[in-house]
Structures are given as C-alpha cells and as structure tokens.
From TrEMBL:
It is a single-pass membrane protein. GO terms for biological process: cytochrome complex assembly. It comes from the Bacteria. It is found in: Cell inner membrane. The chain crosses the membrane at residues 16-36. InterPro entries: Periplasmic_diS_OxRdtase_DsbE (IPR004799), Redoxin (IPR013740), Thioredoxin-like_sf (IPR036249), Thioredoxin_domain (IPR013766), Thioredoxin_ResA/DsbE_sf (IPR050553). Keywords: Cytochrome c-type biogenesis, Disulfide bond, Membrane, Redox-active center, Transmembrane, Transmembrane helix. GO terms for molecular function: disulfide oxidoreductase activity. The lineage of its organism: Bacteria, Pseudomonadati, Pseudomonadota, Gammaproteobacteria, Aeromonadales. It comes from Aeromonas simiae. This is DsbE family thiol:disulfide interchange protein.
Length: 182
C-alpha cells in the first residue's frame, strides 16, 4: 500500500524553515539600520536654545572649573576621545578652526593619560580640555556619541549641534553664520 506524500518533507514548510534564520537576520539588520540612521537633522536640533548645563567641571590636568568660566564669548564644544577614529579624522579641521574661534574639548569616557598623549602627538586645538570620564556632562548635554560638536553662544546658550565628523562645509553652512549673526 502506497503512503500519502508527506507535505513536510521537501515541501514549502521545509524551505521556510531552512531560510528562516536568514530572513530573521535580515529583518533584524534592517530594523537596527533604521534605528541608528539619523532622520534629517532631528538629532542635530535636539537641545538647541537651552543653556549649557551647570555642573562642576574638571580639566584633564585635574583643575576644577565652573561652566561660568567658559562664558563671555562664543566657543565650539567638541566631544571627543583618543580611541575614536572619527575624532582623529576631524582633528585637522579643529586645529584650523582653533586659530579663529575658541574650541573647548570634552574628553568623553577616556583615560586622561591617553587623551594627553594623543594631544601631544597630534596637536592640541583646545583652549581647555574637560575630563568627562564618568560621562555626566555628556549625558546632561544629550550626547549620542563621538565626535559631536556644539556651538555655544557667549551667554551659554546652545546654538548649533552636529553629531559625527565636522567638515569644512558643515562649519561654513551651519556654524560660521551663527558667529556672524548679531
């Protein structure tokens, strides 16, 4: 007596089971890609207009500093780390910008010795480098990663923000016009 063919052997269900891990992996990858890809400038507009957070600050050398000590003139606040490859890529532009506008470094979750060694070898564009080893200031700012650059007004208001590598074109279109505005 001939048995009825089993629809699970070599059939549609078997093919689906065989491809399921690949399909699931592709769907998870697409979801992750969508979640991590910024939509327009929404990330770069977050937090603008509010004042720089008032927290006790410490420089890489261990000196105490207040937020108020940074105020009185516009400056760039650049969030960086010695272990960050993108920070190293934008470093030459920061050296150039540091000649025309004050740049304050916010060393994010880094070892002070590693940060000092990097600045000694690559050059230091910063007027002062703040040590944010515990990430408190970055968290208060809403930093999402390194590098990240903020333009801070003379009164301490956050005027512009860019997440990612700062380029000359971004500087000229997004940041420089704000320095020229009355």
């Amino acid at each position: 007596m001939a048995s009825a063919p089993n629809r699970y052997q070599g059939g549609t269900v078997s093919r689906l089971i065989r491809w399921f891990p690949l399909l699931l992996g592709a769907a998870l990858f697409a979801l992750l890609w969508h979640a991590l890809t910024p939509v327009g400038d929404a990330r770069n507009d977050a937090g603008l207009g509010r004042p720089l957070p008032t927290l006790p600050l410490t420089t890489l050398e261990g000196r105490s500093l207040t937020t108020e000590a940074l105020l009185g003139h516009p400056f760039l606040l650049n969030v960086w780390a010695s272990w960050c490859a993108n920070c190293r890529a934008e470093h030459p532009l920061l050296l150039e910008l540091g000649e025309t506008v004050p740049v304050v470094g916010l060393n994010y979750r880094d070892k002070p010795a590693a940060a000092q060694a990097w600045l000694t070898s690559a050059g230091n564009p910063y007027r002062v480098v703040l040590d944010d080893g515990d990430g408190r200031l970055s968290l208060a700012l809403g930093v999402v990663g390194t590098p990240e650059t903020w333009l801070v007004g003379a009164d301490g208001r956050l005027l512009a923000r860019h997440t990612g590598i700062l380029t000359k074109a971004l500087w000229q279109t997004r940041f420089a016009p704000l320095l020229e505005a009355p």
